[in-house]
Design goal:
The complex is a heterodimer. Chain A contains three helices and twelve strands; from the N terminus they run βααββββββββαβββ. By secondary structure, chain A is mainly beta. Chain A has a single domain, classed as Protocatechuate 3,4-Dioxygenase, subunit A (Sandwich), CATH 2.60.130. Chain A starts with about 35 loop residues before the first strand and ends in a 10-residue tail after the last strand. The longest helix of chain B has 4 residues. Classes of the chains: A mainly beta, B mainly beta.
Amino acid sequence: MRSLSGYRRALPGTQPEYLHPTYVSSLKRAPSQPLVYLPHTLSEITGPVFAPITVNVKACDLTRQHAGEPLGERIIVSGRVLDEDGKPVRKTLVEVWQANAAGRYRHRVDQHQAPLDANFSGHGYAMTDSEGRYRFITVRPGAYPWGNHHNAWRPAHVHFSVFGPAFATRLVTQMYFPGDPLLPFDPIYNCTADESARQRLISVFDWESTIPGHALGYKFDIILNGREATPTEK
Amino acid sequence: MTLRGTTSQTVGPFFSIGLERLNCALVGPGVAGEPVTIEGRVLDGDGVGVPDAIIELWQANSYGKYAHPEDPQDKPVEEGFQGFGRIPTDEDGRFRFMTIKPGPVPGPDGKLQAPHIAVSVFMRGLMRRVVTRIYFPDEPGNAGDFVLSLVEPARRGTLIARNGPAIDGLLKWDVIMQGPGETVFFDC
Protein backbone atom coordinates (compact mmCIF):
# COMPACT_ATOMS: atom_id res chain seq x y z
CA MET A 1 0.00 0.00 0.00
CA ARG A 2 1.31 3.48 -0.78
CA SER A 3 2.16 5.44 2.32
CA LEU A 4 -0.43 7.97 3.37
CA SER A 5 0.52 11.53 4.22
CA GLY A 6 -0.79 12.99 7.47
CA TYR A 7 -1.91 16.50 8.35
CA ARG A 8 0.32 19.29 9.63
CA ARG A 9 0.38 20.25 13.29
CA ALA A 10 -0.30 23.76 14.54
CA LEU A 11 2.59 26.17 14.90
CA PRO A 12 3.58 26.80 18.54
CA GLY A 13 1.34 29.33 20.26
CA THR A 14 -1.36 29.31 17.60
CA GLN A 15 -3.63 26.91 19.49
CA PRO A 16 -4.65 27.39 23.12
CA GLU A 17 -3.07 25.37 25.91
CA TYR A 18 -5.53 23.24 27.84
CA LEU A 19 -4.80 24.78 31.24
CA HIS A 20 -5.49 28.49 31.36
CA PRO A 21 -6.10 29.52 35.00
CA THR A 22 -7.95 32.73 34.09
CA TYR A 23 -10.54 30.49 32.42
CA VAL A 24 -11.76 28.86 35.63
CA SER A 25 -13.53 25.89 34.00
CA SER A 26 -10.19 24.69 32.63
CA LEU A 27 -8.77 24.09 36.14
CA LYS A 28 -10.55 20.76 36.76
CA ARG A 29 -10.93 19.71 33.16
CA ALA A 30 -7.57 20.31 31.48
CA PRO A 31 -5.43 17.16 31.13
CA SER A 32 -2.46 17.29 33.51
CA GLN A 33 -0.27 14.73 31.71
CA PRO A 34 1.57 15.62 28.51
CA LEU A 35 -0.14 14.55 25.29
CA VAL A 36 1.24 11.48 23.51
CA TYR A 37 2.27 12.35 19.96
CA LEU A 38 0.13 10.36 17.53
CA PRO A 39 1.52 9.88 14.03
CA HIS A 40 -1.45 10.02 11.68
CA THR A 41 -2.60 6.58 10.60
CA LEU A 42 -5.49 5.61 8.34
CA SER A 43 -7.77 6.23 11.34
CA GLU A 44 -6.78 9.92 11.54
CA ILE A 45 -6.56 10.75 7.82
CA THR A 46 -10.08 9.49 7.25
CA GLY A 47 -13.15 11.00 8.90
CA PRO A 48 -16.91 11.19 8.62
CA VAL A 49 -18.34 11.96 5.21
CA PHE A 50 -21.83 13.44 5.38
CA ALA A 51 -24.34 12.99 2.61
CA PRO A 52 -24.77 16.24 0.65
CA ILE A 53 -27.48 18.31 2.24
CA THR A 54 -30.27 19.14 -0.12
CA VAL A 55 -30.59 22.91 -0.22
CA ASN A 56 -32.32 23.77 3.01
CA VAL A 57 -33.05 27.45 3.30
CA LYS A 58 -34.14 27.21 6.91
CA ALA A 59 -30.94 25.48 8.01
CA CYS A 60 -28.72 28.33 6.85
CA ASP A 61 -31.16 31.22 7.39
CA LEU A 62 -31.59 31.51 11.14
CA THR A 63 -34.06 34.36 10.63
CA ARG A 64 -36.59 32.12 8.85
CA GLN A 65 -36.96 29.18 11.18
CA HIS A 66 -40.16 30.43 12.83
CA ALA A 67 -43.42 32.11 11.89
CA GLY A 68 -42.12 35.60 12.61
CA GLU A 69 -38.79 37.35 12.27
CA PRO A 70 -36.36 37.47 15.20
CA LEU A 71 -35.51 40.75 16.87
CA GLY A 72 -32.09 42.25 16.38
CA GLU A 73 -29.71 43.39 13.70
CA ARG A 74 -29.89 41.05 10.70
CA ILE A 75 -26.44 40.03 9.42
CA ILE A 76 -24.89 37.80 6.77
CA VAL A 77 -22.00 35.64 7.98
CA SER A 78 -20.14 34.08 5.11
CA GLY A 79 -16.70 32.88 4.19
CA ARG A 80 -14.71 29.95 2.95
CA VAL A 81 -13.30 26.83 4.53
CA LEU A 82 -9.77 26.44 3.19
CA ASP A 83 -6.69 24.44 4.06
CA GLU A 84 -3.38 26.10 4.87
CA ASP A 85 -2.38 25.92 1.23
CA GLY A 86 -5.47 27.91 0.28
CA LYS A 87 -7.26 24.95 -1.26
CA PRO A 88 -11.03 24.96 -0.74
CA VAL A 89 -12.44 22.32 1.61
CA ARG A 90 -15.42 21.17 -0.42
CA LYS A 91 -18.68 19.64 0.74
CA THR A 92 -17.82 19.79 4.40
CA LEU A 93 -20.37 20.27 7.14
CA VAL A 94 -20.41 23.60 9.00
CA GLU A 95 -22.58 23.87 12.13
CA VAL A 96 -23.25 27.13 14.01
CA TRP A 97 -24.96 28.12 17.24
CA GLN A 98 -25.29 31.43 19.05
CA ALA A 99 -27.17 33.59 21.55
CA ASN A 100 -30.03 35.78 20.39
CA ALA A 101 -29.76 39.55 19.99
CA ALA A 102 -30.34 40.01 23.73
CA GLY A 103 -27.49 37.66 24.64
CA ARG A 104 -29.62 34.68 25.65
CA TYR A 105 -29.26 31.09 24.41
CA ARG A 106 -32.28 28.89 23.90
CA HIS A 107 -30.85 26.36 26.36
CA ARG A 108 -32.18 25.19 29.72
CA VAL A 109 -28.86 25.94 31.45
CA ASP A 110 -28.79 29.60 30.35
CA GLN A 111 -30.37 31.59 33.18
CA HIS A 112 -29.25 35.04 32.04
CA GLN A 113 -32.04 37.54 32.74
CA ALA A 114 -32.47 38.53 29.14
CA PRO A 115 -35.49 37.68 27.02
CA LEU A 116 -35.78 34.63 24.84
CA ASP A 117 -37.02 35.30 21.33
CA ALA A 118 -39.83 33.01 20.19
CA ASN A 119 -38.66 33.55 16.62
CA PHE A 120 -35.03 32.60 17.12
CA SER A 121 -33.58 29.16 17.86
CA GLY A 122 -29.97 30.17 17.30
CA HIS A 123 -28.61 27.20 15.38
CA GLY A 124 -28.02 26.27 11.78
CA TYR A 125 -25.89 24.21 9.43
CA ALA A 126 -24.64 24.30 5.89
CA MET A 127 -22.38 22.37 3.59
CA THR A 128 -19.56 24.18 1.78
CA ASP A 129 -19.83 24.41 -2.00
CA SER A 130 -17.22 23.44 -4.59
CA GLU A 131 -15.20 26.58 -3.70
CA GLY A 132 -15.38 25.93 0.02
CA ARG A 133 -17.94 28.70 0.54
CA TYR A 134 -20.63 28.81 3.20
CA ARG A 135 -23.20 31.49 4.05
CA PHE A 136 -25.58 32.04 6.96
CA ILE A 137 -28.21 34.71 7.55
CA THR A 138 -28.73 35.41 11.23
CA VAL A 139 -28.96 38.21 13.78
CA ARG A 140 -25.99 39.72 15.53
CA PRO A 141 -25.73 37.94 18.89
CA GLY A 142 -25.68 39.98 22.09
CA ALA A 143 -22.93 40.00 24.70
CA TYR A 144 -23.85 38.24 27.94
CA PRO A 145 -22.54 37.93 31.49
CA TRP A 146 -21.05 34.71 32.82
CA GLY A 147 -19.76 33.51 36.16
CA ASN A 148 -16.05 33.19 35.44
CA HIS A 149 -15.04 36.24 37.52
CA HIS A 150 -16.54 39.48 38.84
CA ASN A 151 -18.41 41.35 36.11
CA ALA A 152 -17.34 38.87 33.42
CA TRP A 153 -18.98 39.32 29.99
CA ARG A 154 -18.50 37.28 26.87
CA PRO A 155 -17.94 39.33 23.73
CA ALA A 156 -20.52 38.71 21.01
CA HIS A 157 -19.66 35.50 19.19
CA VAL A 158 -20.96 32.75 16.94
CA HIS A 159 -19.86 29.15 17.60
CA PHE A 160 -18.61 27.19 14.57
CA SER A 161 -18.09 23.43 14.21
CA VAL A 162 -16.30 22.17 11.09
CA PHE A 163 -15.27 18.64 10.13
CA GLY A 164 -12.95 18.96 7.16
CA PRO A 165 -11.72 15.90 5.27
CA ALA A 166 -10.32 13.89 8.19
CA PHE A 167 -10.55 13.07 11.88
CA ALA A 168 -7.33 15.09 12.19
CA THR A 169 -8.93 18.27 10.81
CA ARG A 170 -11.91 18.48 13.18
CA LEU A 171 -12.29 22.02 14.55
CA VAL A 172 -14.67 23.84 16.89
CA THR A 173 -14.12 27.57 17.26
CA GLN A 174 -15.84 30.91 17.84
CA MET A 175 -16.16 33.90 15.52
CA TYR A 176 -16.01 37.38 17.03
CA PHE A 177 -16.94 40.83 15.71
CA PRO A 178 -14.56 43.67 14.81
CA GLY A 179 -14.17 46.45 17.35
CA ASP A 180 -15.79 44.58 20.23
CA PRO A 181 -14.61 46.38 23.41
CA LEU A 182 -14.96 43.17 25.46
CA LEU A 183 -12.32 41.20 23.55
CA PRO A 184 -9.30 42.38 25.61
CA PHE A 185 -11.05 41.20 28.80
CA ASP A 186 -12.29 37.80 27.64
CA PRO A 187 -10.28 34.83 29.04
CA ILE A 188 -11.56 32.52 26.30
CA TYR A 189 -10.52 34.77 23.42
CA ASN A 190 -7.20 35.42 25.17
CA CYS A 191 -6.34 31.75 25.86
CA THR A 192 -4.26 31.65 22.70
CA ALA A 193 -0.75 33.06 23.07
CA ASP A 194 -0.21 34.16 19.47
CA GLU A 195 -1.82 37.55 18.89
CA SER A 196 -2.25 37.16 15.15
CA ALA A 197 -3.90 33.76 15.72
CA ARG A 198 -6.37 35.44 18.07
CA GLN A 199 -7.10 38.19 15.59
CA ARG A 200 -7.96 35.68 12.91
CA LEU A 201 -10.97 34.74 15.05
CA ILE A 202 -12.39 38.23 14.44
CA SER A 203 -14.64 38.48 11.41
CA VAL A 204 -14.17 41.29 8.90
CA PHE A 205 -16.92 43.73 8.01
CA ASP A 206 -17.58 43.06 4.34
CA TRP A 207 -19.44 45.48 2.05
CA GLU A 208 -19.55 42.92 -0.75
CA SER A 209 -21.72 40.47 1.13
CA THR A 210 -24.15 43.05 2.48
CA ILE A 211 -27.70 43.04 1.14
CA PRO A 212 -28.66 46.67 0.54
CA GLY A 213 -31.62 47.68 2.64
CA HIS A 214 -31.63 44.38 4.46
CA ALA A 215 -28.47 43.13 6.21
CA LEU A 216 -24.78 43.89 6.82
CA GLY A 217 -22.11 41.34 5.95
CA TYR A 218 -19.30 39.82 7.99
CA LYS A 219 -16.68 37.57 6.47
CA PHE A 220 -15.04 34.73 8.38
CA ASP A 221 -12.71 32.27 6.67
CA ILE A 222 -11.89 29.06 8.51
CA ILE A 223 -8.50 27.48 7.85
CA LEU A 224 -7.99 23.79 8.55
CA ASN A 225 -4.64 22.04 8.92
CA GLY A 226 -2.91 21.43 5.60
CA ARG A 227 -1.54 18.16 4.32
CA GLU A 228 2.01 17.01 4.90
CA ALA A 229 3.99 16.64 1.71
CA THR A 230 3.76 13.08 0.47
CA PRO A 231 7.03 11.16 0.68
CA THR A 232 7.67 11.56 -3.06
CA GLU A 233 7.22 15.33 -2.84
CA LYS A 234 9.85 15.80 -0.14
CA MET B 1 1.85 27.02 3.17
CA THR B 2 0.21 30.41 2.78
CA LEU B 3 -2.41 30.43 5.52
CA ARG B 4 -2.39 29.55 9.19
CA GLY B 5 -4.84 27.17 10.81
CA THR B 6 -7.76 28.69 12.68
CA THR B 7 -7.47 28.61 16.45
CA SER B 8 -9.75 26.30 18.41
CA GLN B 9 -12.18 27.69 21.00
CA THR B 10 -14.28 25.91 23.60
CA VAL B 11 -17.70 24.49 22.71
CA GLY B 12 -18.95 26.22 25.86
CA PRO B 13 -21.98 25.11 27.87
CA PHE B 14 -24.65 25.55 25.20
CA PHE B 15 -23.36 23.42 22.33
CA SER B 16 -26.33 21.09 22.40
CA ILE B 17 -28.53 23.57 20.57
CA GLY B 18 -26.16 23.52 17.62
CA LEU B 19 -24.91 19.95 17.68
CA GLU B 20 -27.76 17.74 18.83
CA ARG B 21 -29.15 17.36 15.33
CA LEU B 22 -26.31 14.91 14.65
CA ASN B 23 -26.56 12.98 17.91
CA CYS B 24 -26.78 9.54 16.41
CA ALA B 25 -26.50 5.84 16.71
CA LEU B 26 -23.66 4.35 14.71
CA VAL B 27 -25.39 1.27 13.41
CA GLY B 28 -28.20 1.05 10.92
CA PRO B 29 -30.09 -2.12 9.99
CA GLY B 30 -28.30 -4.94 8.22
CA VAL B 31 -24.77 -4.07 9.28
CA ALA B 32 -22.40 -7.02 9.70
CA GLY B 33 -20.30 -7.64 12.78
CA GLU B 34 -20.28 -8.19 16.50
CA PRO B 35 -22.61 -5.77 18.33
CA VAL B 36 -21.08 -4.04 21.34
CA THR B 37 -22.43 -1.50 23.80
CA ILE B 38 -19.92 0.81 25.43
CA GLU B 39 -20.83 2.88 28.45
CA GLY B 40 -18.94 4.98 30.93
CA ARG B 41 -18.54 8.38 32.49
CA VAL B 42 -16.56 11.51 31.81
CA LEU B 43 -14.99 12.63 35.12
CA ASP B 44 -13.27 15.90 36.03
CA GLY B 45 -10.27 16.41 38.31
CA ASP B 46 -12.46 16.02 41.41
CA GLY B 47 -13.92 12.74 40.14
CA VAL B 48 -17.23 14.47 39.46
CA GLY B 49 -19.19 13.57 36.34
CA VAL B 50 -19.01 16.16 33.56
CA PRO B 51 -22.64 16.86 32.60
CA ASP B 52 -21.83 18.95 29.55
CA ALA B 53 -19.37 16.93 27.49
CA ILE B 54 -19.91 15.63 23.98
CA ILE B 55 -18.15 12.59 22.59
CA GLU B 56 -17.56 11.98 18.90
CA LEU B 57 -16.61 8.56 17.57
CA TRP B 58 -15.00 7.53 14.31
CA GLN B 59 -14.46 3.90 13.41
CA ALA B 60 -14.09 1.35 10.64
CA ASN B 61 -16.75 -1.27 9.97
CA SER B 62 -16.35 -4.92 10.93
CA TYR B 63 -14.25 -5.55 7.82
CA GLY B 64 -11.76 -2.88 8.90
CA LYS B 65 -12.85 -0.46 6.18
CA TYR B 66 -13.47 3.25 6.68
CA ALA B 67 -16.36 4.83 4.76
CA HIS B 68 -14.01 7.46 3.35
CA PRO B 69 -12.52 7.98 -0.13
CA GLU B 70 -8.93 7.81 1.12
CA ASP B 71 -9.21 4.31 2.53
CA PRO B 72 -7.42 2.39 -0.27
CA GLN B 73 -8.34 -1.11 0.92
CA ASP B 74 -10.36 -3.42 -1.25
CA LYS B 75 -12.96 -4.17 1.42
CA PRO B 76 -16.71 -3.54 1.47
CA VAL B 77 -18.29 -0.28 2.62
CA GLU B 78 -21.74 -0.89 4.07
CA GLU B 79 -24.79 1.22 3.56
CA GLY B 80 -26.12 1.95 7.04
CA PHE B 81 -22.67 2.25 8.57
CA GLN B 82 -21.03 5.63 8.22
CA GLY B 83 -18.71 5.10 11.19
CA PHE B 84 -19.54 8.37 12.94
CA GLY B 85 -21.32 8.83 16.26
CA ARG B 86 -21.98 11.80 18.53
CA ILE B 87 -23.16 11.32 22.11
CA PRO B 88 -23.66 13.95 24.83
CA THR B 89 -23.14 13.04 28.50
CA ASP B 90 -26.07 13.16 30.94
CA GLU B 91 -26.29 15.02 34.28
CA ASP B 92 -23.96 12.50 35.90
CA GLY B 93 -21.44 12.53 33.08
CA ARG B 94 -22.65 9.19 31.75
CA PHE B 95 -22.71 8.14 28.13
CA ARG B 96 -23.68 4.93 26.37
CA PHE B 97 -23.58 3.92 22.73
CA MET B 98 -24.12 0.86 20.62
CA THR B 99 -21.95 -0.05 17.66
CA ILE B 100 -20.25 -3.01 16.05
CA LYS B 101 -16.70 -3.96 16.90
CA PRO B 102 -14.47 -2.50 14.18
CA GLY B 103 -12.13 -4.75 12.23
CA PRO B 104 -8.38 -4.12 12.23
CA VAL B 105 -7.09 -1.38 9.92
CA PRO B 106 -3.58 -0.90 8.51
CA GLY B 107 -0.95 0.86 10.60
CA PRO B 108 2.10 2.87 9.52
CA ASP B 109 4.49 -0.02 10.20
CA GLY B 110 2.78 -2.22 7.60
CA LYS B 111 1.12 -4.29 10.31
CA LEU B 112 -2.55 -4.17 11.20
CA GLN B 113 -3.61 -1.96 14.10
CA ALA B 114 -5.67 -3.63 16.81
CA PRO B 115 -9.41 -2.82 16.55
CA HIS B 116 -10.08 0.65 17.95
CA ILE B 117 -12.44 3.62 17.86
CA ALA B 118 -11.01 7.14 17.44
CA VAL B 119 -12.57 9.51 19.97
CA SER B 120 -12.85 13.29 20.33
CA VAL B 121 -14.21 14.79 23.55
CA PHE B 122 -15.40 18.40 23.76
CA MET B 123 -16.63 20.29 26.82
CA ARG B 124 -16.84 23.67 28.50
CA GLY B 125 -13.40 24.30 30.00
CA LEU B 126 -11.57 22.60 27.13
CA MET B 127 -10.28 25.17 24.66
CA ARG B 128 -9.73 22.39 22.15
CA ARG B 129 -10.91 18.83 21.96
CA VAL B 130 -9.05 15.97 23.58
CA VAL B 131 -8.32 12.99 21.34
CA THR B 132 -8.15 9.44 22.63
CA ARG B 133 -8.93 5.88 21.51
CA ILE B 134 -11.03 2.97 22.70
CA TYR B 135 -9.44 -0.47 22.31
CA PHE B 136 -11.13 -3.76 23.11
CA PRO B 137 -10.43 -6.21 25.97
CA ASP B 138 -9.04 -9.72 25.39
CA GLU B 139 -7.77 -8.64 21.99
CA PRO B 140 -4.54 -10.41 20.99
CA GLY B 141 -3.59 -7.55 18.62
CA ASN B 142 -3.34 -5.05 21.48
CA ALA B 143 0.09 -6.39 22.47
CA GLY B 144 1.70 -5.40 19.17
CA ASP B 145 -0.40 -2.34 18.36
CA PHE B 146 1.60 0.56 16.95
CA VAL B 147 -0.26 3.30 18.83
CA LEU B 148 -0.55 1.48 22.17
CA SER B 149 3.20 0.89 22.02
CA LEU B 150 3.72 4.69 22.00
CA VAL B 151 2.11 4.90 25.44
CA GLU B 152 3.96 4.06 28.65
CA PRO B 153 2.79 0.60 29.78
CA ALA B 154 1.31 1.82 33.09
CA ARG B 155 -1.14 4.11 31.26
CA ARG B 156 -2.16 1.85 28.34
CA GLY B 157 -5.07 0.42 30.31
CA THR B 158 -6.87 3.78 30.16
CA LEU B 159 -7.35 3.17 26.44
CA ILE B 160 -8.75 -0.35 26.73
CA ALA B 161 -12.42 -0.92 27.56
CA ARG B 162 -13.23 -3.40 30.32
CA ASN B 163 -15.73 -6.24 30.19
CA GLY B 164 -18.96 -5.30 31.93
CA PRO B 165 -20.65 -7.53 34.47
CA ALA B 166 -21.97 -10.59 32.67
CA ILE B 167 -24.01 -8.87 29.97
CA ASP B 168 -22.82 -10.01 26.58
CA GLY B 169 -21.26 -7.25 24.60
CA LEU B 170 -21.39 -4.61 27.33
CA LEU B 171 -18.07 -2.83 27.76
CA LYS B 172 -17.05 -0.12 30.22
CA TRP B 173 -14.75 2.76 29.39
CA ASP B 174 -14.33 6.05 31.25
CA VAL B 175 -12.76 9.36 30.30
CA ILE B 176 -10.78 10.73 33.27
CA MET B 177 -9.67 14.26 32.57
CA GLN B 178 -7.14 14.67 35.40
CA GLY B 179 -5.33 12.94 38.22
CA PRO B 180 -4.90 9.26 39.12
CA GLY B 181 -5.92 7.08 36.20
CA GLU B 182 -5.97 10.08 33.84
CA THR B 183 -6.91 8.92 30.36
CA VAL B 184 -4.17 9.05 27.75
CA PHE B 185 -4.83 11.90 25.34
CA PHE B 186 -3.05 12.26 22.03
CA ASP B 187 -1.46 15.13 20.16
CA CYS B 188 -3.32 14.51 16.90
